[in-house]
Amino acid sequence: MAVTDWRVSAAPDGGHRFVCGPDTGDGVREAEGEGSGPLPACVAALSRAGIDVTILDFREHATRGDGDSEAVAYVECRSGGVTAWDVGLDASGQAASVRALLAAVHRVR
Fold this sequence. Notes:
Layout lengths: L1 E9 L5 E8 L7 E5 L2 H11 L5 E9 L8 E9 L2 E9 L2 H16 L1
């Protein structure tokens, strides 16, 4: 599974809205979901695209102690009965988290 594009924004209820273009093998189609945070919203969007994902564990931290460091996130998930984990790195903690989740899902799909 590959995701061609994604974005996170504020949802009207104060949560998060996640929109992505997953390629599930039948071509790319836009999917969106809402949740209490970026990762739950991403899981909801993937579910709407027919990709069931359960997040089992999540960790995030800065790569250095100063204010200019990148964030690194680790996500363990289960999809299709297979468990995998992966890592994401980005200047934004939110983006690092999403990158880690999508990379882990890609491993099992």
